[in-house]
Every structure is written in C-alpha cells, then in structure tokens.
Amino acid sequence: MAADNDVLSKDPDWWRQAVIYQIYPRSFADADGDGLGDLKGITSRVPYLASLGIDAVWLSPFYPSELADGGYDVAHYREVDPKLGTLEHFDELIAALHAVGIRMFVDIVPNHSSDQHEWFQAALAAGPGSPERERYIFRKGLGEHGELPPSDWPSHFGPTAWDRLPDGDWYLHLFAPEQPDFNWDHPEVREDFLTTLRFWSDRGVDGFRIDVAHALTKDLTEPLRSKAAFIDFDNPLTGDDVLFDRNEVHDIYRSWREVFNEYDPPRVAVAEAYVRAERRMLYARPDSLGQAFNFDLLVSPWQVETYRTVITDNVLLAEGVGASSTWVLSNHDKVRHASRLALPPGDDGTRWVDSDGHDPEIDRDLGLRRARAATLLMLALPGSSYIYQGEELGLHEVADLPAEALQDPIFKRTGELHKGRDGCRVPLPWTTSGPSFGFGTAAPHLPQPSWFGASSVEAEDGAEGSTLELYRTALRLRRQFATTEAFEWVASSPEVLLFRRGNGWHCITNFGTAAVALPEGTLLVTSGELDDGLLPTDTTAWVAVEEPSATS
Ligand code: BGC
User: Among 79, 127, 138, 404, which is most buried by a count of CB atoms within 10 Å?
Assistant: First the structure.
C-alpha cells in the first residue's frame, strides 16, 4: 500500500502544467523474457523515466485481458494481468516512481469490459431475461425471428455494434465483440467503478485517464433510436445524442469527483472524450473529471493558421471552466507524429495505414524536423502535455508490419482494409543492436524494423542534437520557466507563431519557407540548427527575453 512520500508535494494543482508520459506496458520493457513488456520491465527503467524530467506516467491498461483490443478489454479491474506481473509488482513500480518524484495515472475503461469479465460470463450462463444480463445491454433482435440487430448502431471497429448469441439475444459492443458495453443505468455497475477508483487510489495512484468518457450513458428507451454514423463534428452534440456525450454522464463524474476528493492531494482525472471542443470542456469542469484530452494537435496538419486557432481556442476554452488545457501530438491510437507530419496535404494518416502493402513514400527527415518543432512548441504551451513512449526518440511509425503480425481488431473488423494502430505500438528500442534492441530477450510481440537501433535510447543518450536530448533539455527548461500559466501572442509575420509565457519565456515557430529573425534575448533551445543566426523553416526556438523590471 502507498506510504506517504516526501518527494511528492501535496499541491492540489500539481497537474495543471504537468508533463505526463504515456506507457503502453506491453511494448515498453520486457523483464521476464516472454516478448511482452511487463511491470518489472517498467520498474527497471525508472532511472530512464527520471532522466527525462517528466512529472507523471500514465499506464495504458495492465489489467487481466485476452488482448482483443490491446488491453482495453478488461477482464478484472482490480488485478494485474499475470502476463504483466502481480499487484506486488505494481506496488514496487509505484513506490519506485514516487521515490523519484514521478506520479502515476492509470487507465480506467468504464464503457465496456472484456467478454471474459465474470459479470459477462455470468450473464451468458444465466440466459435471456436474467438479472445477470441487466449489467450489460442485451436486447431481442428485430425481424420475424429476431434475426436482425436491434438497431442500426455501428461499432467503432466496424461494422455493427450488435452480436447475436446462440440463445437468440443480441448484446451491444461499441468496440470489438469481445468488449460488451456496460449498462450504466445499473446501480451495481456504478458502485463497482467507485470501488475500483478507491482501490487504485488507496494503492497510491495519483490520477486516472478515463477511456471513452463520453459513451457511458446511452438512450436505451424503446424503440431504440437510429444512429447509423458516429459523431459528426460539424454538428455539435446537444447532450441528447443516443450514444454519446449525454448530459447525464456528468452525474457519474460528479460522484467520481467525490471519491477523488477523499484523498490528499485529491486524485485527478483526464477524460478521453471525442466530442467538439466546447462539449469536451464539460468534462474538464472542477466538479467533473477536471481535465479533458484536447486531441486537436493530434489531428492537425502542419499549418500555421491551424496551429494558431487550435492554441487560441483551447487556452480560452480551458480557462472558461477553470481547467488548464491538455496537448497531445502522439498516442497509442494514432500514426506517430514524426511520420504523420510528413504526410502529403489532405492526408490525415488514415489512408496511410491502409493495408496496401507498402510503406508510402514520406520524407522521414522532414517529418522528424517538424515533429521536433511541434514538440518544442507544445511544451511551451500552458497546461499539461502528454507525450507517448518513443516520441522522445523521434520514432517513426512502423508502417509496414506484415499482415500476420497485426493484432489490432480494426484489421479484421474492416475486412483487412485498415492495418489499425499497431505501427505506433512496436516495442521500444533501448539498444543499438542485440535481440529486440534491448526490449527483452525474446522476440518482441510485434516485430521491430532494422532501423529501430539507430533511434534507440543507447544511440541517443548523451548524443548532441538527438531527439532524446532535445526532450530532456526542453523539460528541464520548462520546469524552470513554466511557473505561471500566463500566455500571450506576440505580433509576428503570418508564417510565424510567437508567444510569450511569464518570466520572459518566448517560443517562436517558423512554418514559412524563409528563415526569420529570433526575438532578442538569450537563446535557450532550438528544435533544429539555426541558419546564420536565423530560425529556418519548420523549426522552433525558445528565447528568454529580458522583461522590463517593475521599477524602471
Ligand atoms: C482507446 C483505444 C481503445 C478504445 C476502446 C480508446 O479510446 O484509446 O485504444 O481501442 O478506447 O477501449
């Protein structure tokens, strides 16, 4: 169990400008040599995590799982997957992190469980009409013999969200069939998640990332309303959609907030809610989850006006609810930003991961250059930044994984049309050579490409100009400068973004083609080399500009 710790402050606002490092546990470090990353592997790398200068790690699910969806199919919410370790290993990991001043977020997956969860197994065994089925969403089918799905609702992983059991009942799964959706109208479901939040909070967990936070409550009144397509971002939801972002979902989060506030400092949370920005902020209210993921940069092309708008809007929106914004350039669901930012205009990366059998031509140097510039820009913004394991090495997407290696359910569910998300989940390279580039001793669960060694921790550690050293430098400087949330645009030419944070800290990014002058002051760090003292294209710099003193 968690002991009080002197290294971590009791500041209830510690999260407001935190840098959180996302670990995808199965692909981080493999200590027991089975090809799958594990908790002991993460513990063995705590010195590395400490060397980055992050404030927290977020562990993607490490719970017992059949891995139908990379661990987001949870069979037991208060256990560790035996393939990844034990609860004792978890306690060791959190103690090791806390000892070096790093906090821990865990992932909570409340919309659905695994079909292996004991409640779903009990529901299957108990049969149609049983109380056991009420914790999930079972329905009779339409058509003369109930042979048609109860509604037209689609699954995120395609095509339909309903599957039929041999006993004739259909059940709802907005994701894979192995991920049945809970019925959040059921009091036991509500109660059980409160127990889970307390269980991990009691073990010292500092924060929670809430998976698909906008989907829990659904309009299940009969006849079920039609919804043939997912969220249309051009049509803002109003709180009365059939499946998403219903107003009453916030009742759940208000009850969670009461649990968070039982702790000192209060536990924190961040919502993954894929809804329009204004609606997303409802989840970031102080009586709800407190923060919400802003994925706008994750899906933005490398364009000055887009970045300017995303930044302006999100800083204001967060302020409006008393939260701080979040920023994300890469995660376990999207093409890594070193690759994504080199895609041709108009290509959002989805087509790029289509299984057309080849790695499309991208200029990898251009992608990395932009990725470094984008990262340095992001790390200068007020609020929390989420970085995804491997981006600190400048890793590219592994776009050419062979079909037989793919694990993502998206591949099969789309008739092998889309490869899915495995290309950003390939186990990390720690060493320049050797079996699995230092990930472990066995063949890794997803094959690594030969070019991984050149982007390994060993290759970049201490190497001047490496992406790893850029992240370390930036995070060290950020700690020094980000003492306020002040943010202000400074007038600049249209192809340039220039803003001021408190303490004279300025960030400038050049999206244009011609090199531009830097603001006058002390150059702190740049994402790429200067060109005769000027800031070249696709480059960011931080400059400390002397501010007029109050008395002068
Ligand atoms: C997670 C995905 C997962 C899905 C279903 C998401 O938003 O980030 O990786 O497939 O939720 O749990």
Answer: 138
For residue 289, what are the β-bridge partners?
Answer: none
The pLDDT tens digits of the residues spanning 52-82 come to: 999 999 999 999 999 999 999 999 999 999 9
What is the amino acid identity at position 470?
L
**Spatial distance between the Cα atoms of 40 and 179, rounded to a whole number of angstroms:** 28
pLDDT, tens only, 274-309: 988 889 999 999 999 999 999 999 989 999 999 999
Check: CB of residue 64 under 8 Å from CB of residue 53.
no
Q: Give the mutation target among 77, 114, 333, 421 for probing the ligand 1 site: most ligand atoms within 8 A of CB.
A: 333
Q: Which atom of ligand 1 is nearest to the CA of 212?
A: 7
Q: Which of 232-241, 331-340, 361-370 has the lowest mean pLDDT?
A: 232-241
Nearest to 471 by CA among 364, 369, 381, 394: 394
Our answer on whether the CB atom of 157 is closer than 6 Å to any ligand 1 atom is no
| Active-site annotation holder among 191, 232, 240, 262 | 262
Structure tokens at 134: 């009420």
Point out the ligand 1 atom lying closest to the alpha carbon of residue 409: 10
What are 99-102's contacts with CB under 8 Å, separation 24+?
99/5, 99/7, 100/7, 100/46, 100/47, 100/49, 100/50, 101/7, 101/8, 101/50, 101/55, 102/46, 102/49, 102/50, 102/54, 102/55, 102/56, 102/57
Neighbouring-strand partners of residue 21 = 57, 387
Q: Quick: pLDDT tens for 110-123.
A: 999 999 999 999 99
